[in-house]
Amino acid sequence: MHEHPPKRPRRSRRGRRSPSWILLGGGVVVVLVLAVVIAYAATVFIDDGTGTGTADRPGDDGPREVVDLGEPGTIGQWRTTVDGIGTASTYTNEFTEERAHGEFALVDVTVENTGNEPGYFDSSAISLVDDEGNIHESSTTIEDDALFLEQLDPGDRASGTAVVDVPEGTEIAEVRVKDTAPPHALLVVRVEGG
Fold first, then answer.
1. Rounded-to-integer distance, Cα 191 and Cα 194, Å
2. Per-residue pLDDT for the chain (194 aa), expressed as one digit of tens each?
3. Domain coordinates of the chain in residue numbers?
4. What is the CATH code for 64-190?
5. Is the peptide bond before 58 cis (omega within 30 degrees of 0)?
């Protein structure tokens, strides 16, 4: 009589996942995370239909103060005065020269910290609205007078220039200065003749 070696018990396939299912599950999770990130980015950077791609962002519905050019206005801890707006085709310092795609609108600004603690003011808080309603945001330039992350203690004041590249011949209707801290106040400076 011929004896057969005992058979190994078969393992159940239940509870066991093949590597392809694990990879597929991980891929689904990655796709879902990417979808959430893209949806968030779309809500922040969505175009408002003006063609500028810089629509009012969430938070622009906070309190607004409206003043005229040369008059001080307050947003958060900052008393801000837009002293004037000039234009130039180039913006230079001793090391570099930047050339505008259209022309540079040079916005002269004075800010004072009226709060009770130090704060940073940056020219990126400034944008321009032209007479057709298009919004143009300031460029970050590393200049002595650019108000780039300027730290001011309570009572301190600084003056500088925000540089905005706009199409040549653009008529500016208003300057907007946005507070990044809640409740996201907005200072609107009317530009006469804009």
1. 6
2. 556 666 655 555 555 555 555 555 556 556 555 555 565 444 433 333 333 333 344 445 568 999 999 999 999 899 999 999 999 888 776 677 788 889 999 999 999 999 999 998 888 889 999 999 999 998 755 455 566 677 899 999 999 888 899 999 999 999 999 987 777 889 999 997 65
3. 64-190
4. 2.60.40.1240
5. no
